[in-house]
Amino acid sequence: MKKHIFTPMKLHAEMLFSAMSHQLRLRVLMLLQREGELCVCELMHALNVSQPMISRHLAHLREWNIVSDRRQGQWVYYRLHDDLPGWAGDVLTASLAGVSDNAPYARDHVSLASMSNRPGSACCA
Q1: Of 23, 35, 47, 21, which is closest to residue 77 (Cα–Cα)?
Q2: How far apart are CA 115 and CA 117, in angstroms?
Q3: Distance between the two ends of the chain, CA-based, in angstroms?
């Protein structure tokens, strides 16, 4: 029987910083860093963007292994990838600390908090 050996995720700094260099992707990452896991509908609401636009950027983040997704019924939820290297988590934590009180990041958080039909109450109904 072959023994599985854990190997840490290979995430190059260029990939993370490329992801963070686009304002919409950075806003997504800051919301996920703050909230943990969000449904696509929550991201659409908080960022005031269309489903195709958010999906395109989430696809990039997923391809780069920065976020992971899971399906629950017809909804798709995203979170930061569980296997992000420690340095990447540190960068995201420091970034959130630096921007959380500034526009548009503070506004995104307020917008998300004001969403009346968040998951748990028939998400995205």
Answers
A1: 35
A2: 6
A3: 48
Count of CB atoms situated within 10 Å of the CB of 50: 10
Q: How confident is the model at residue 118 (pLDDT cuts 50, 70, 90)?
A: confident
Q: Which residues contact 109 (CB under 8 A, 6 or more apart)?
A: 31, 34, 46, 100
pTM higher than 0.85 = yes
DSSP secondary structure string, 2-59? Answer: PPP--------HHHHHHHHTSHHHHHHHHHHHHHSEEEHHHHHHHHT--HHHHHHHHH
3-class DSSP assignment, residue 60: helix
CA distance 31 to 44: 12
Express each pLDDT in 79-102 by its tens digit: 999 999 999 999 999 999 999 999
- The 3-state DSSP class for residue 65 equals coil
Q: Could you give all domains of the chain from N- to C-terminal order, each with its CATH number?
A: 15-86 (1.10.10.10)
